[in-house]
Design a protein that fits this description.
The protein has 464 residues and is an alpha/beta fold. Helices cover 40% and strands 12% of the residues. The protein has helices at 8-15, 32-39, 46-56, 64-67, 70-82, 87-92, 133-146, 157-165, 182-191, 207-213, 236-245, 258-261, 296-309, 315-325, 328-348, 366-372, 387-396, 426-431, 448-460; strands spanning 150-154, 173-177, 198-202, 218-224, 249-253, 271-275, 289-293, 354-356, 379-383, 401-402, 412-414, 438-442. The longest helix is centred in the last third of the chain and has 21 residues, at 328-348. The relative contact order is 0.10. GO terms for molecular function: cysteine-S-conjugate beta-lyase activity; pyridoxal phosphate binding.
């Protein structure tokens, strides 16, 4: 029976219970064009309609009235509804539930306070420090991306991490990785201990060492994977088991991966931190931090701290993040593609001693990394064996900006020991294997061949 002659009331009773709720379907579909337009009438069914057309027909312009059968339609709709949309599709179709006018761009609620209906009646928002619709929109999409119960946006990644440490009390312990961001190291070594919290440092790639360090007083285990800057890989699933066996929380700094490539909450983590300054916003034009969490009780504790300490992200900064996040998946795909090519080039260069990048086949934990992430990302590091040569490379490149940070559409280059990790004492850095000749690069969206030529020239002209 041709689809054009079928009454859709009978279709709704035969394909699925879900179809009963599709009130936008007319009673009759006299033509294939009307059929396709009908599916496109409702925005939140756009993905289903597009998938329906492409999966039911090899020819997108085929005449459904001549070939499509009811059973085939039901099967296609069922298949599409079972498929979870990709991150890029989710970002492009995220419904802003906080704007009554259906604005295509999330509105900026640039206000400090909100009018109440009376002295004793409160609306959903009263003061922007406590909540703002623009921030709610950003926190909602981030929670969805990380598959979290809730997400919270802070003025920076460090503000977010500091809030996590405030969950602990005097006498508690934190077990943290050795190879972590220099700012995190500074917080844990020079600030947190003043509150009476003991901080233990451990090589988190060594599960036995982690298990030995975590004890009854441990309330938080803090890791990065991959680590910054040596790109070491930690087993998130097993470390979560170790932490939870002692009733400790597991925090994963996921800034290098972003929600596009890794979702640590799905691996057992309790809290995921992103420096939204990096890949989430993506353009080096805003500072922001994110905590995505599992469990309503933990979420309420973190919201209390965010509100009480006044560390929530301002509306305009939230709006900048909302604008940048739309292209996050696209940016990361291009950046990762470039990074893979650059890593392979560096690995073959005679003046490079070692390349740290999980996308290379000789990375010692490549298999582990790909068991918990969708890609290797676009941050890598390499050693030349000479501080003088490394300094020359960093200063001679034309297309890499010398700067701390990463995750920008612009390629960045740095020497961690003298920049992002300079606050760590030299003896401590050396003991942890962080050598002064190490170069870290964050690969942008430029043409990969230009970046490779730039690095090749800098390496080839350096001192011998």
């Amino acid at each position: 029976m041709a689809l054009s002659s079928v009454n859709f009331r009978s279709i709704r009773s035969s394909v699925s219970a879900e179809l009963h709720s599709w009130e936008f379907l007319p009673a009759h579909y006299p033509s294939s064009i009307q059929f396709k337009n009908g599916l496109n009438l409702v925005e939140n069914r756009l993905l289903i309609s597009k998938k329906f057309i492409t999966s039911c027909s090899k020819d997108r312009e085929m005449d459904f009235s001549a070939s499509a059968l009811v059973d085939s339609a039901a099967e296609c709709i069922s298949d599409v509804e079972a498929k979870e949309p990709s991150v890029s599709t989710l970002l492009m179709n995220f419904e802003n539930k906080f704007d009554p006018f259906g604005a295509m761009s999330a509105p900026l609620y640039q206000t400090a306070t909100f009018k109440q209906t009376s002295a004793t009646e409160y609306g959903p928002y009263d003061y922007t420090r406590s909540g703002n619709p623009t921030r709610t929109a950003l926190e909602s999409i981030l929670a969805e991306l990380d598959k979290a119960d809730r997400a919270f946006c802070f003025t920076s990644g460090m503000a977010a991490l500091a809030a996590v440490t405030h969950l602990l009390e005097t006498g508690d312990e934190i077990v943290a990785g050795e190879d972590i961001y220099g700012g995190s190291d500074r917080l844990l070594s020079k600030v947190t201990p003043k509150t009476g919290i003991e901080v233990k440092r451990v090589n988190t790639t060594d599960l036995d060492a982690v298990a030995s360090a975590v004890g009854p007083k441990t309330k938080l285990v803090w890791i990065e994977s991959p680590t910054n800057p040596r790109i070491q890989i930690s087993d998130i699933r097993k470390i979560a088991e170790i932490a939870h066996a002692q009733d400790a929380l597991l925090l994963v700094d996921n800034s290098i991966m972003s929600p596009v490539l890794s979702q640590p909450l799905q691996l057992g983590a309790d809290i995921v931190m992103h420096s939204a300054t990096k890949f989430i916003s993506g353009h080096s034009d805003v500072m922001a931090g994110v905590l995505a969490v599992k469990g309503e009780s933990l979420a309420e504790r973190l919201y209390f701290l965010q509100n009480a300490e006044g560390s929530a992200l301002a509306p305009f900064d939230c709006w900048i993040c909302l604008r940048g996040i739309k292209t996050m998946a696209l940016r990361i795909e291009k950046q990762q593609e470039n990074a893979q090519k650059i890593a392979e080039f560096l690995a073959s260069h005679p003046r490079v001693k070692r390349v740290n990048y999980a996308g290379l086949p000789d990375h010692p934990d490549r298999t582990l990394h790909y068991s918990q992430a969708k890609g290797a990302g676009s941050v890598l590091s390499f050693s030349t064996g000479s501080v003088a040569l490394s300094k020359h490379v960093v200063e001679m490149t034309k297309y890499f900006s010398i700067t701390v940070s990463f995750g920008s559409v612009k390629s960045l280059i740095s020497m961690p020991c003298f920049m992002s990790h300079a606050s760590i004492p030299a003896a401590v850095r050396e003991a942890r294997g962080l050598t002064e000749d190490l170069i870290r690069i964050s690969v942008g969206i430029e043409d990969a061949s230009d970046l490779i030529s730039d690095l090749d020239n800098a390496l080839s002209t350096g001192p011998f």
